[in-house]
Amino acid sequence: MAVSMEVNPKQLKLFVALVAVAAVVGLYLYVFSPQADRYARAKAKLSEAETQLQASLIRLKRIPAAEQELTASILELDAFENLVPDEDKVHYIYRDIEAVAQKNLVTVTSVTVASGKVRGPYLELPITVEMEGRYAEILDFVQGLASLSRVINFRSFSLTAGAPVADGGPKGVLRASAQVSTFVRPKGGGQSGAAATVKAPTARK
Q1: How far is CA 79 from CA 82, 85, 92, in A?
Q2: b/e burial code for range 12-23 (CB count within 10 A of at least 16 → b)
Q3: Residue 105, Ramachandran bin (φ over 0: left; ψ between -120 and 50: alpha; else beta)
Q4: To 5 degrees, how large is the angle CA 53–CA 58–CA 60?
């Protein structure tokens, strides 16, 4: 019995179409899809590299400003260091207080130095300055202390009436007390901690 080998043209066209579709699907799955994934990963890496490059450029642009800030900080620290004497030279601060008092016609009756406190590499010395003078003279004295080439911090300040004129006190003279602090470099890493009182009278002119 003979077998017919005739192929229906419609079936042939359908078969060819299916093969073409299969080829396209295979091409997409095995060629275009992996390529697209690799492209997406490459694009993401490129975007990340661009972001890092921009950040690096920003840091590079900030380097001159950072160098200027560092230089300014070093100069400021050096300036501060120049204002801080060694502990064994703290008497120069007392001398400066006395000089300001004489210049402004204020009588310093006493300078009391309390126990120092360690503040990092420095020693902070609380100082109480007792004085007498007229109101304007005392204000000038306080301003003179603030303008010294020393590190002097004002903690408190008080004014009281002087001796009554009836008791022989000079007219218009007030008593004042200023609590200030200054810094020194501790000798041997610190000091004994004993408070000291320095009498420093100044004759009025």
Answers
A1: 5, 12, 18
A2: eeeeeeeeeeee
A3: left
A4: 90
Residue 1 in tokens: 């019995």
Q: Which residues contact 180 (CB under 8 A, 6 or more apart)?
A: 126, 127, 128, 129, 145, 152, 153, 154, 155
Question: Within 13 Å, how many C-alpha atoms sit on residue 83's CB side?
Answer: 16
Determine which of 1-10, 73-82, 159-168 has the lowest per-residue pLDDT on average: 1-10
Instruction: Give me the residue label for tokens 């003179």.
Output: 144
Tokens (6 digits) for 56: 């690096």
List, in sequence order, every residue forming a beta bridge with 161; answer none if it has no partner. 174
135 within 8 A of 174, measured Cβ to Cβ: yes
Rounded to 10 degrees, the C-alpha dihedral 84/85/90/92 comes to: -100
Question: Under DSSP, is residue 106 helix (H, G, I), strand (E, B) or coil?
Answer: coil
Tell me the two tokens of residue 186.
């501790």
Helix ranges, the chain (H): 9-27, 33-83, 91-103, 135-146
Between the CA atoms of 82, 84, 85 and 88, what dihedral angle is there, to the nearest 10 degrees?
-160
Cα–Cα distance between 51 and 78 in angstroms, integer? 39
pTM metric for this prediction: 0.53
- Spatial neighbors of 84 by CB under 8 A, at least 6 apart, are 122, 151, 183, 184, 185
Q: What is the pLDDT of residues 45-56, one digit of tens each?
A: 878 888 888 887
